[in-house]
Amino acid sequence: MVCQSLLAQLTIIFLFLNGAIAQACWKNTTCSGPTDTAFPGTWESNIFAPSSRTVSPASILSKEGNFISSFKGTAQLAGNGSQYVFDFGIEVGGLVTIDYTTNGAGQIGLAFTESKNWIGEWSDASNGKFVGPDGALYSNFTTSGKYSYTMPDSKLRGGFRYLTLFLVTNGTTTVNIKDINLAIGFQPTWSNLRAYQGYFHSNDDELNKIWYSGAYTLQTNAVPVGTGRHIPMLSYGWLNDGVLGPGDTIIVDGAKRDRAVWPGDMGIAVPSTFVSIGDLQSVKNALQVMYNYQNPTTGAFPEAGPPLLQLGSDTYHMWTMIGTYNYVLYSNDTAFLQENWAKYLLAMNFIYGKVTYPSGLLNVTGLRDWARWQTGYNGSEPQMILYRTLVTGADLAIWAEDTTGLNATWLGHAAALKTAVNEYCFDPAYGAFKDNATATTLHPQDANSMSILFDVVNSTARAQGISTRLLDNWTPIGAVTPELPGNISPFISSFEIQAHLSIGQTARALDLIRRCWGWYLNNPLGTQSTVIEGYLTNGTFGYRSTRGYDYTPSYISHSHGWSSGPTSALTSFILGLSVTGRAGSTWKLAPQFGDLKTVEGGFMTGLGKFQASWALQGRGYKLSYNVPEGTVGDVVLPCLDAGRFPSISIDGRPVPKSLNPQIVNNAVVLSAIGGGSHSIVVQ
């Protein structure tokens, strides 16, 4: 009898746990994500992601947004118009359930916002910038009793921090809220939202939080494939029921909206995804949908994926091609490359076919870019992107085992383009690239940042001069982008910080990160957990709203992956660890110190863990790393005393002559070092 009772209890426990596991991931998706972090440590305290896929608000605010109390699980609404604001403390997204009792008839309204600015009975805007308001959802009750309301799947709210509950009634009805919980909708294949496959930690707590805010943003941007924004846009309210692509999970541009695949955004989002959460499956599905909807005749890729399926951008066409390189570099998924190689070749023929002579520049005929509603002729930013497309395409040709010489052909095209861009688009009187090959006085942030980062600029002195010129756009809260006046774009500033870092201007990059991303992270009106799409130079959240046909202020996304540049930059340049061959078969370790004292971090690839750390010690430093055996890398050791060859030891022994140490740009370069765990001391 005792054994039977125990067996029954164990059966109940098993069924409960099995049910919990079954519900751990979103709806009918497969729990295929990692179950635990790859790098456990104290830095996990900086992860914004909740420990459960079901969360409740952290606190209760007044309708004015002032703190009232912590949320203990209950609250009361009494009388028509009464309301409370429930603060989750971080950006969240998914389906809310409220359990309540009432003594009369009426409605409970639910309204959502990412920013404190739009707390109230009308949600912030997610549906469309040219259509009606999002409004609220309502739970109706006709008599006294117990009720439970769960938002319909199609009404999933992709991104919000604040939930306003308000009472609509003709009488003296009282509603007692018994429970509020949210089923997290993002990162749908992960049972453990904190199972990061990368990490970063330094002695600067603000930089650490900025790195993790980018990582968490990317999590909120990995969404179930059936929850895209409804197209055509509604005249009132919102629906997130659009099919975005294949698989169970896909990376989109923003948590709240547009909730669509935008390959331009992926130029920043994918490298940051790789070094942090490591979710390359969402990346693969996003790229595949671009190939699935490629124009079979012309070879043009969509500007955005379905259901929006916007067409006609030359730059976003090229970002799909660059995204293909990034994905294969990080994943070594050559099967994906082979499957889509014929389409890639068609895409290259399409875009390179727009290069005209005698100039040798790309003649842009597509419409739109990240900031420009109209593009055309020989814009300098598209030239930079084409150069990067050709260089990365040359590597892809090798990885695809092409035997027709495309690697050499495309590198030759890139070299010719580089010469043409420097001849026709550079303004020697100003010391930076013009917006196009005409006599314009506009010197854009995007083209100039990319010219350095993508190595299009033709001299070291010219690159340093452009870096200095970019400082002219800086304000205390970020860099104004001249091509979108009055606006600060963390997207393009993500390229700028990497540009400064790529030529050793470490202090400038860290300064801009703290000005821009630090300002938003510490802004009490924001999410304080994610990175924003953009904002105005006066410090308001009205990004792009300086022009009458652009965004209404509450339409701005406060969780936008295209702004996550510091996450990859801090790992690849400050820690200095990056992969240069597929899945890290070859790698590079080149730390930059700036004003920091200690940094460590790492990421996972199919080959295993890549991890490094450095710490300043007196007049020198200690650099340690642990990478998979069988890999090969270059280690670049900065010289703290300019012009002096430092004393260097590896694992307690002098540097072997076989590594051929030599000083290049005030750093000692050790080439082709093998994998394993090693410690280098520089004095």
UniProtKB/TrEMBL annotation:
Signal sequence interval, chain numbering: 1-22
Domain Alpha-L-rhamnosidase C-terminal residue range list: 586-640
Gene Ontology biological-process annotations: carbohydrate metabolic process
Keywords assigned by UniProt, alphabetized: Signal
Pfam families found in the cross-reference section: Bac_rhamnosid6H, Bac_rhamnosid_C
Gene Ontology molecular function terms on file: catalytic activity
The keyword Iron-sulfur is assigned to this record: no
Boundaries of every Alpha-L-rhamnosidase six-hairpin glycosidase domain copy: 250-471
Name of the protein in its database record: Related to alpha-L-rhamnosidase A
Originating organism: Phialocephala subalpina
